[in-house]
Every structure is written in C-alpha cells, then in structure tokens.
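Lab meeting, item 3. Inverse folding demo.
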C-alpha cells in the first residue's frame, strides 16, 4: 500500500506540473498575441506578420502537445489512484480478517477456561 501511495503522490505531482506548464504556455501565448496586436495597430511589415504567424503556430502546437501530456498524466493519476484504493481495500480487509481471527481465538480460549472451571467445579462437588 505504501508503494501504491507513493506512486499516486508522484503521478499527482506530475499532473499538477503538466497543468502548470500548460497554463504558463497559454499565458505566454496570450501575452504574445497582445504584444502583436499592439505592434499591428502601429503597422507591421509582411515579414513581421509571417514571423508572428509562424511563432504563434508553434506556441499553439506546444499548447496542444501540453494538453495531451495533461490528459495522459491525469489518466496515469486515475490509474494510480485506483491501484492505491485496491491495495488499501485489500489491506483493510486483511486487517478485519486478522481481527476476526483474534476474536475467535480469544473466544475459544475463554470457552476452554470456562470448561476447565466447570470441570473443577464438578469434581469438587463430587467429593
């Protein structure tokens, strides 16, 4: 269970990191677009427009790739969570089984002691 919990924590950290990177890319993309709009308002050359489109396309591609990474890391986190829940459940069930066995053994010991006491009492009353 401990290994499964560690794996879950690791996948959650990776998913959070991927999401943060995606947000950073989107923020940069938005800032770049705002800067270009400001430049465009002042008049931009054809070369500037071409470079903008090329770089903006690269940014858009990076955001899409990062979204795929986010989806993958979310899936890995879900799988790790499922694995941890299964391990936790198995360990919990094992604990309940052990408790039940201990209780049964204690009950058997109590019954044995009671029989021995009853036998002694019966022998005493016979004499």
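The presenter then showed the designed sequence:
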């Amino acid at each position: 269970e401990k290994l499964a919990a560690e794996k879950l924590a690791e996948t959650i950290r990776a998913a959070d990191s991927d999401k943060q990177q995606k947000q950073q890319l989107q923020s940069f993309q938005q800032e770049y677009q705002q800067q270009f709009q400001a430049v465009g308002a002042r008049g931009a050359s054809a070369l500037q427009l071409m470079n903008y489109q090329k770089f903006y396309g690269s940014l858009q591609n990076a955001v899409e790739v990062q979204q795929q990474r986010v989806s993958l890391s979310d899936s890995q986190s879900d799988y790790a969570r499922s694995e941890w829940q299964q391990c936790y459940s198995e360990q919990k069930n094992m604990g309940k089984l052990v408790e039940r066995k201990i209780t049964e053994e204690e009950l058997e010991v109590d019954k044995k002691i009671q029989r021995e006491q009853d036998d002694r009492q019966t022998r005493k009353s016979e004499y």
